[in-house]
Amino acid sequence: MSCLSLSSSPLPDPEAALKLSALGSLARLSVYRTLLRSGAGGATLAQLRKRTTIPASTLRHHLTALVRAGLVEEDRASRQLRCVARFDEIKRLKSFMLRDCCTQEHMLGTVAASNRF
Question: So what's the architecture of 13-115 in CATH?
Fold first, then answer.
């Protein structure tokens, strides 16, 4: 998955809530940001353990939550499990969060300006 790929499909509220919930843990946020920094090549479990200092069993638990939320993809190559951030999904989440940004500012500004006179 390339970090340059874009997804234009809108993110429904329940799916956004699931993704935000998965990122609502400091440990999962740390794992996810580590994967984002790793780029399209991702990281193995051993690399993630080393970079985050999260114990293996706990790391697996957090990765499962991120995979269920669609934010991480896992790929098993022989005996190694490689995890990759789904850049398309974080872009969808970003678009969801900013979709209505400042939409009422214009309306409020118009109302405020009309109340001046």
Answer: Orthogonal Bundle (1.10)
